Amino acid sequence: MSPPAVILAQLTDPHVGVVDDEAARALADAVNCVLALNLPPEAVLVSGDLAAHGKPDEYERVRELLAPLPMPVHVLAGNHDDRDLLRSYFDAPGDGDLLRYSARCGPARLVVCDTIQAGRDDGNMDAERLAWLEAELAADRETPTIVAMHHPPLLTGIKGLDAIGIPPDQRAALAEVVARNPQVKRIIGGHVHREVVDSLGGCPVLACPSTHLQAVFDLREDAGLALAPEPPGYGLHLLVDGELVSHVLPIGKWEPAPLPEA
Fold first, then answer.
1. Are 172 and 132 in contact (CB under 8 A)?
2. How many CA atoms lie within 13 A of 152 on its CB side?
3. Closest by CA position to 44, among listed 181, 134, 148
C-alpha cells in the first residue's frame, strides 16, 4: 500500500467577528491542529461563512488567523460572506459575479461552487450554476475531484436546517450531473454546523462541523434553529490507493504521535 496523500484540510463556518474573541480563538485552534498534522495537507479550504457579518475588519482578522498556514488556502462564499471582500482579502478567483473556480491539490482537483444568494440564507444551484459545474467537470474527467459548496446538497432531518439548504429539484438535477462524472469522489460543504453524511448521484456528501459552534440536534417539527458550544471539528480528505477517504477530526490542543523512525 502506498502512503496516503493528504489532499485537503477543510475548515468551515468560523463566523469570526471583531468583538467575538471565542470565535477567533476557535479558528486559531483549528489552524494549530492543521499545523500539527504529521503529514501536512496540499491545501486548506475554508468552506464559507468566514465572517460573522461580512465586514472588512472581520476578514482582516480571519486573514491574520489563517496566515500561519504555509500551504495554499482556498475560500468559498457562505451566506454570511461578501464575495468582493473575499476576493480582496484572500485573492480568491471567480467567474463574473459568482465566486467559483477550480484548483489543483496535489494529485486531486478541487472544484469550488457558489451557492449563495444575496440577502438570503438558503442555497441555489440553478440551471446556470449547474451548467458551469458540468462544463468544469468535463474539462478533466480523469483526475480525482472534490466538489465544494457552502450549502451541502443533503438533508439533515432538522427542519430549520433543511429549510435553508439546496431545494429538492436542484438537488435532483445536481445528482444527474454527478452521476455522469464518476471522477467526483466527494461533495463537501459546511453551513449546517454539524457533521452529516449523505449521498447524491452515487457520490458521498459530507457536511463538516463548524470550527466554533454547532447546530442543536433537534428533530421536532416545531424546533427552531439554535447553536450550542458542542465540540468543534474539521475535515481531512486524503487519497489512499486511489480512493478518497474523509475524516472528521476534533479541534483541541493536542500533540500528534511521533512518526516511527525509518
1. no
2. 30
3. 148
Grid cell, residue 193, equals 454546523
At which residue does the C-alpha cell 455522469 appear? Answer: 180
Q: What percent of the chain has pLDDT over 90?
A: 87
What are the grid coordinates assigned to 24, written together?
Answer: 477567533
| DSSP 3-state of 148 | strand
Question: 46: which strand partners?
Answer: 11, 75
The pairing of beta strand 243-250 with beta strand 233-240: antiparallel
Closest to 89 measured CA to CA, from 116, 56, 122: 56
Q: What is the pTM of this model?
A: 0.94
Residue 136 one-letter amino acid: E
What is the C-alpha end-to-end distance of the chain, expressed in Å?
Answer: 17
Question: pLDDT tens for residues 96-112?
Answer: 799 999 999 999 999 99
- Are 238 and 245 contacting, i.e. CB atoms less than 8 angstroms apart? yes
Where in the chain does DSSP place strands (E)? 5-11, 43-46, 73-75, 101-105, 108-112, 145-148, 184-189, 196-200, 203-207, 214-215, 227-228, 233-240, 243-250
Whole-number Cα distances in Å, 67 to 49, 64, 254: 18, 5, 20
The tens digit of pLDDT for each residue in 48-101 reads 999 999 999 999 999 999 999 999 999 999 999 999 999 999 999 876 799 999
Cα-based torsion angle of the residue sequence 181, 182, 183, 188 in order, rounded to the nearest 10 degrees: 90
Per-residue DSSP letter, 39: S
235: which strand partners?
10, 248
Q: Quick check: helix, strand or coil at residue 246?
A: strand
